[in-house]
Specification:
It is a single chain. This protein is mainly alpha-helical. The chain has a domain of about 55 residues. It is built from four helices and three strands. It has a three-stranded antiparallel β-sheet. The termini are far apart.
């Protein structure tokens, strides 16, 4: 892969494809496609093309960082227990994301009610 100059995040396209991710992450194409097929990776498929919305990608990167930090604090655990901690981490992330979505919905409903009065 030919190395390209780094871009500003704002200059990245809205949908990142395999070439964009390869440039950003500096990993080979096979690893990119492995990511696209992971359940936790926020990829979408359009026809035969895989891509990821850039803000979802950025959020996924942040979560991976948190997950690695969380698990590394428990590096004395065996692999089975690490998997349990990782599962607990993702359940907590899902819970917080759902709670945030509920709060946004409530705020929108309240705003809507007050705008009618």
């Amino acid at each position: 892969m030919k190395k390209e100059k780094a871009r500003q995040w704002e200059d990245e396209p809205l949908l990142l494809d395999a070439k964009d991710l390869q440039r950003i992450m500096r990993i080979n194409r096979n690893h990119i496609y492995e990511l696209f097929h992971q359940e936790s990776f926020p990829s979408i498929r359009i026809g035969r093309r895989f891509c990821v919305e850039k803000n979802n990608f950025r959020e996924w990167l942040q979560q991976q960082s948190w997950k690695n930090e969380f698990i590394s604090k428990h590096n004395v655990l065996n692999n089975d227990k690490k998997k349990i901690f990782e599962q607990a981490f993702w359940e907590a992330v899902t819970f917080l994301r759902n709670r945030e979505a509920d709060n946004i919905d409530r705020k929108e409903k309240i705003t809507e009610l007050f705008s009618k009065t």
